């Protein structure tokens, strides 16, 4: 599988291409005919290329749904409503690796203002955690512009697509950019009425807040951004140690500390220290791990899983040809040709009518090879959350399936059994310029137990609930639970 190591199992939070040749000028005016034409390109790309549209729906259900969605395009529709329609479609199919992305012109336009608070979703409620000002930190948001918070989350749920069936706390993915998502859906304004209750108070207050006056877009060359911590290890006490693997996308150009080489050394030194210290319990924190390179996932598993395995039981595509090549971003056209070549050379049609990857030699596969000298054999507790996704969720799934670890937290938005996560392409819709990112390859996770429910994420052995009050006080409810058991 060396030839397809560009496959990345990562969370689908995509900012679009940075290449100048991919620029798309702002359209003068968008009409119903423009939206209809873009819808047809979107639909054709999905139905001819996506490897998992039928994972949770019958052919008849898919046809009826797509027809209904197409019928929603009217003369009164605007750009943001069309953008929401595309996200609603993706959300229906249950694939968090598919995404639609605003074009460059959308971020460059002036606007009357965007919602001025970055809110946090905890257990289905909206909170303000980090900001001071007219609303104290820790306040619960009751309504925005008189629309109840729960209704707001119901509307915005379409922007938090997970793999399979919606996870119970899926709307916590809105924490990656509530302000922008809220404004995209409900529109731009000069001011917003926010109703809230401070911690411990019963009275509701409703100040008018001025909007942030310009669309924000983080451009790497214009901002000094502190790299995110990729991994960390420390001793909690004489019996417990903490290992946080916050991403498998470990590269400085991805905004994270470290490198794959440093990560490999870090793991070896960490598990050597665990063995020498005789540590009884290890808490592995995957709560922020949205995925990344499956090789780095396999390296971690080699210290935790006592048997050799390939993480993927099966990899497949629905086609050997990349459709709509003229609609792929110009910067990705060479990649499309490379993927098409590999599909032709490395797959064969199976009894299901799919193109499954042919098993390669052992030295060409991603393998989990247990480190017999440093394999951790103590008590393992794994912390997960809705943010645990893709290769992060796949890692948690294999640990749950093949070890005695105790899984703690909330259900992941990454599927336990299957995902569509490989070799994705960005298509450009010709009239709006919206980009549609669609994966090529579907993956079945290599699990011993086939009894897990279809379409569900990794479900914790201990589900941590009623977290809001603890988090507001600065506590870590999942860690507290792990240390109690």
CATH class of the largest domain: Alpha Beta
For the CA atoms, what is the radius of gyration? 23 Å
Helix content: 25-40%
Q: What is the fold-level CATH name, i.e. the topology of the largest domain?
A: 2-enoyl-CoA Hydratase, Chain A, domain 1
Largest sheet: 6 strands, antiparallel
Count the beta strands.
22
Let me know the average pLDDT. 90
Per DSSP, the total helix count is: 12
Q: What low-confidence regions span 5 or more consecutive residues with pLDDT below 50?
A: 1-8, 10-18, 215-223
Within CATH, the superfamily of the largest domain carries the name: 2-enoyl-CoA Hydratase, Chain A, domain 1
Query: What is the rounded distance between the termini?
Result: 41 Å
- CATH architecture of the largest domain, by name, is Alpha-Beta Complex
Structural domains: how many: 2
The general outline is globular
Helix-and-strand structural type = alpha+beta
Question: Could you tell me the strand content as a percent range?
Answer: 15-25%
Characterize the structure shown.
- By secondary structure, the chain is an alpha+beta fold.
- It has two domains: 120-214, PDZ domain (Pdz3 Domain), CATH 2.30.42.10; 231-484, Alpha-Beta Complex (2-enoyl-CoA Hydratase, Chain A, domain 1), CATH 3.90.226.10.
- Helices cover 27% and strands 19% of the residues.
- It contains twelve helices and 22 strands.
- It has helices spanning 32-49, 59-71, 79-93, 104-108, 149-156, 178-186, 260-277, 294-301, 333-346, 391-402, 468-472, 477-484; strands at 9-10, 99-101, 120-122, 125-128, 139-144, 147-148, 191-197, 208-210, 231-235, 240-245, 281-285, 291-292, 312-317, 347-349, 355-357, 379-384, 406-409, 418-422, 425-428, 435-438, 441-445, 462-463.
- The strands form five sheets. Strands 3, 4, 5, 6, 7 and 8 form a six-stranded antiparallel beta sheet that branches.
- The radius of gyration is 23 Å and the shape is globular.
